[in-house]
Amino acid sequence: MTEQHAQTTSPSRQPAHVPGGEETINGVSYMRNAQGDLRPTELVKPQDKLQDQTVRGIIGYALALSDEVSRFKAHTFEDISAFEAILAGQYDATVGGKKGNKTLMSYDGLFKVQVQVADLIDFGPELQIAKTLVDECLTEWAADARPEIRDIVTRAFNTDKAGQINRSEIFMLLRLEIEDERWQRAMQAIKDAIRVVGSKSYVRCYQRAALDAAWKAIQIDLAKA
Predict the structure, then answer these.
(1) Distance CA 108, CA 209 (A)
(2) pTM of the model
(3) Rounded Cα–Cα distance for residues 41 and 25 (Å)
(4) Residue 169 in this model has a pLDDT that exceeds 70
(5) Would you say 129 and 122 are in contact if contact means Cβ atoms under 8 Å apart?
(6) pLDDT score, position 3
(7) Rounded distance between C-alpha atoms, residue 77 and residue 102, angstroms
(8) Cα 133 to Cα 153: distance, rounded to the nearest angstrom
(9) Strand, helix or coil at 193?
(10) What crossing angle do the helices spanning 147-157 and 126-141 adopt, rounded to 10°?
(11) What is each CA distance from 46 to 19, 50, 219, in whole angstroms?
């Protein structure tokens, strides 16, 4: 019953190869646990075996789907580049702005493909100068400093779980309107610290039922599907 249900609900694409959980040594079947130890398969609980098979089955389809999405992205940019090459050759024209952002629309206006290019930001040593100046401001203001400002500053200069500066909070500091001269110098130091170290292109696809309807994103993100 379980096998039949799995067959009727599995995706039609072929899964990627995922190594099985069993190893045969000298004619005896073993399964390796999370500590790296080999255990005879016959001693592994049936529910653990079933869980292992289920996870490996799902991962096989996930890997295949991930590869398919990667191919789709590559083909999408190739198709857009080919279209732009034709456009440039025939009309000496390009699509989009200086940063590479562009929108391509179907003739009936019901489908569109957007390419967005985002800068990859890092911060230079000026950021430490900014932190020193901000700390000086907070120390002098003491009780007069609003709690929300202290909270933003704390979050801004704390590193996240990956050890990276919290960029969004740093940019929040730049939005605060504070006239203190040292604060202004600190904000200028943050601006001077900003380094564009590269860029990343994103492609997003949309559709709508009618010209006066709202655009709806075609979801490729598993978490939003």
Answers:
(1) 11
(2) 0.63
(3) 11
(4) yes
(5) no
(6) 43
(7) 12
(8) 12
(9) helix
(10) 160
(11) 19, 6, 37
